[in-house]
Amino acid sequence: MKFVPEEWGDPALKDTHVSNVFIERYMKDAPGEYVKVYLYFLMLYQRGEEGTLEEAAEDLGLTKQEVTHGLAYWDRAGAVKFSLPDPGSMAEKRDCPLEDQQLVEMFSLVERVLGRPLGGTEPMEIVSWLSDYGATPEMVVYAFAYSSKNKHNVNIKYMEAIIRDWTQKGLRHPDQIEEYLAKKDLSNQKHRRIFRALGFLRNPTEAEREMMDYWLEGLGIPMEDILEACGKTTGISNPNLNYINQVLLNRKNQRPQDEKAYFGANGQNALEDAYAALREKGKQGADERKGEVYRKAPRIKILDEEMAGLHRGATRLALEGGSSEKEALMALLKKKKEERAYLMTESGFPPDYTDIRYECALCKDTGKTREGAPCTCQEAVKEHFGI
């Protein structure tokens, strides 16, 4: 294809010379508006002139913010060096609470998380979160890092929804957000346990989550009691949470506040109920420690989920007789266990930190030894619960 540009007057006076390095290395990944900004200021530089942001915005048909974002983009890319002539040019103070350099630093950190430059309207939309929702630069960077690692979704609209949700909950500092996410993660684990007990394969609705949280936090019902109530739906064609709710409320009304009085009044099932309470206590403790580990080392959560899938696959292959495939799965499982142990140590946790801690290691809080004989801990459990 032959390309012949139109000529306008004396080239020595009016041509702007663009380096081939810019075209080959920088231009292909740059948003179109930012290329316009580069060429405009390159023209002024080669003329020996200095322009203002206002003049550039008017000549290019852009806003002053877009011009400054373009200059910041090329500065971060290493194609130019620039300093702003006026401190309020990146964003008007009534629109954005940050100074220009703070915005440049925030954009730089976000781009480092994304592994690419921000493009198009992304910088403008991020600035709008600061003014519209009162977001802070720290939470913006944290939101991108969190979504990149855990959700694998950094679409700008999805990120806006996260920022809006956090600010509506009054969360603006990473420490507050981490605490909220840890509680949410633990809550989600409990919701999944309840839904598995009911045989549900779908995710719970918001109303169902609120009902389960009410059982666990509002009423303080142990997980073991909830799972037992779920077991009562075996003969029901369409089990639902409203049925479980009624069962739990009835049981809660019948149960004395004093734990010892409750277990002591339940006859032959009292000892079994006591051990069930001990097992649930151990499970809840393990869940809380997992939440702590996952916050500090998100990769460990991914490994746990992958290993759970490998265990299920190995079990299925064992039933089907696929010995060679099972060996390959077990080898992969071993590697993931080794990686998990290494990450636990690197993160400052003992390798068994997330394991369930039983009151009795011999029977694992079942009251029976492996041979089926009564465990030696039974007398201590009876004394503790007043049985």
What can you see in these coordinates?
The longest helix is centred in the C-terminal third of the chain and has 27 residues, at 270-296. The protein is 65% helix and 0% strand. It is elongated. The chain is mostly helical.
Quickly describe the structure.
This protein has 387 residues and is mainly alpha-helical.
Overall pLDDT confidence: 78
Tell me about the largest β-sheet: none
SS elements, strand count: 0
Structural class: mainly alpha
**C-alpha-based Rg, rounded:** 31 Å
Strand content: under 5%
Instruction: Give the % helix.
Output: 55-70%
Helical element count?
18
Overview features:
single chain, mainly alpha, 387 residues
List the SSEs and their pairings.
Elements: H1 11-14, H2 20-26, H3 32-47, H4 53-60, H5 64-77, H6 100-114, H7 122-132, H8 137-151, H9 156-168, H10 174-198, H11 206-218, H12 223-231, H13 241-254, H14 259-264, H15 270-296, H16 298-320, H17 323-346, H18 378-385
Helix pairs in contact: 3-5, 4-5, 6-8, 7-9, 10-12, 10-15, 15-16, 16-17
